[in-house]
Design brief:
- This protein has 197 residues and is α+β, with helices and mostly antiparallel strands.
- It has six helices and five strands; from the N terminus they run H-H-H-H-E-E-E-E-E-H-H.
- The chain folds into two domains: 75 residues, no CATH class; 82 residues, SH3 type barrels.
- It is 53% helix and 16% strand.
- Strands 4-3-2-1-5 form a five-stranded antiparallel β-sheet, with helices on one face.
- Strand 1 and strand 2 form a beta hairpin.
- Helix 1 packs across helix 2.
- The longest helix is centred in the first third of the chain and has 43 residues.
């Protein structure tokens, strides 16, 4: 009887731990699909209403609309006048928000648009042989550097410190790789440090 109860318990728990991630994935997928349709709705509103009546695959149509409009904006941004208009709108609206500027700066750096010698993955060496992941923001040229010490699991938030350059070890990894480790509470640190050499 005890063996039967153990079998039922282990089977139930095993099935639960397979079913739970599947249910969570299903819910997440549903939310993503709804978000895609929500993003495409304002675009669809620009077209005659009869074009989108009785859709059989609204998610596919939404993705196509988003891709097409993105391509149109991308083409438009190749024109000097459109770039100037875009910069003017950005500078006079959301560009005035400090958080937007910081996020834009981070995004551009992730896209390999960063200036040489700025915003690089690093380790900060502390007392008692402690090491802490950081982003080297700038070498100040006076023996110090400004670094950002990110918080896990939110790598875009953290504190800014000025530390001696002698405590900074630049890592030979990408920003994305370091950010992934920080986002996962340090899981993958060993591989990251091995890759950096």
């Amino acid at each position: 009887m005890k063996t039967l109860l153990e079998f039922l318990k282990s089977t139930l728990m095993g099935g639960f731990f397979i079913l739970l991630p599947l249910l969570l994935f299903s819910l997440l997928l549903g939310e993503i699909l709804e978000a895609i349709i929500g993003l495409a709705t304002p675009i669809a509103d620009l077209f005659p209403q009869s074009w989108f009546e009785n859709l059989q695959a609204p998610v596919v149509v939404a993705i196509i609309l988003i891709v097409l409009v993105s391509m149109l904006f991308g083409l438009a941004m190749r024109l000097a006048a459109a770039r100037q208009l875009g910069h003017w709108l950005e500078d006079n609206t959301i560009g005035r928000l400090p958080l937007y500027s910081a996020i834009k700066s981070l995004a551009s750096r992730f896209a390999s648009l960063e200036e040489d010698g700025k915003f690089r993955p690093a380790l900060i060496h502390g007392p008692a042989d402690q090491r802490e992941f950081a982003y080297l923001m700038e070498d100040l040229g006076n023996g110090y550097a400004s670094v950002m010490l990110p918080r896990s699991p939110t790598p875009m938030a953290g504190s800014i410190k000025l530390v001696p350059m002698t405590q900074v070890e630049v890592l030979d990894v990408s920003l994305g790789e370091l950010t992934a480790v920080i986002s996962h509470w340090g899981v993958g640190s060993k591989e990251l440090l091995v890759k950096s050499g």
